[in-house]
Recover the amino acids of this structure.
């Protein structure tokens, strides 16, 4: 089976840095994805990691450690519009589907 | 513009009625998916299809049915057998490779009265 864990909710201040963690246990591994989802809207793709290390994309970075079954999403210079849910998803072995965690709701305050 | 179109955006149905949600994509993607999202929950996979005329059950397929007669289309029917159908339904598509991220439609919110 597959299990993905993320914190339920986090709060941070505008301009700050926040790290959202994700741990996973899967049968096989073909990559980890991060998505952003604003309330009532569809998820949008943020990042993809399949090798260990850090992937940087503007204000957002994502890190992966396959041996530890661990990833994090780092958001810098937080803006109010970053208030959203952040979904961690893992693709296992042999098939296309992604398995999603329950998501972390991030609230950015002024 | 390429993308995924879901309709309707909002749908109300009475108990005991079947309802079909439409999903069309013009991204030329082979794989398509249906997810369900409940408040405070992650996305749960209902059905997925990797190729035309073929589909597989996801984790919560009971009470749902799908078809994949065309590459562009993957409609989902919520049947009266689905015990708790009120939810936000998301359709997605991706390329065939392992690195292909999912592209999502805007979602359909179904409410059973």
């Amino acid at each position: 089976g597959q299990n993905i864990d993320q914190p339920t909710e986090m709060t941070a201040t505008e301009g700050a840095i926040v790290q959202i963690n994700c741990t996973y246990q899967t049968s096989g591994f073909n990559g980890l994805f991060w998505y952003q989802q604003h309330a009532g809207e569809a998820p949008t793709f943020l990042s993809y990691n399949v090798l260990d290390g850090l992937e940087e994309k503007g204000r957002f970075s994502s890190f992966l450690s396959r041996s530890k079954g661990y990833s994090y999403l780092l958001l810098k210079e937080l803006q109010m519009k970053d208030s959203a849910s952040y979904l961690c998803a893992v693709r296992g072995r042999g098939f296309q589907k992604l398995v999603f965690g329950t998501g972390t709701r991030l609230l950015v305050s002024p | 513009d390429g993308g995924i179109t879901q309709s309707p955006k909002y749908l109300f149905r009475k108990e005991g009625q079947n309802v079909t949600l439409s999903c069309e994509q013009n991204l030329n993607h082979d794989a398509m998916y249906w997810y369900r999202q409940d408040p405070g929950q992650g996305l749960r996979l209902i059905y997925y299809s990797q190729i035309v005329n073929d589909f597989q059950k996801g984790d919560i397929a009971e009470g749902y049915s799908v078809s994949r007669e065309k590459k562009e289309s993957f409609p989902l029917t919520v049947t009266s057998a689905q015990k708790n159908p009120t939810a936000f339904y998301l359709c997605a598509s991706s390329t065939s490779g392992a690195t292909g991220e999912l592209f999502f439609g805007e979602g359909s919110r179904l409410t059973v009265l």
About this structure: The radius of gyration of chain B is 13 Å. The longest strand of chain B covers residues 43-51. The mean pLDDT of chain B is 92. Residues 55 and 90 of chain B are 17 Å apart (CA to CA).
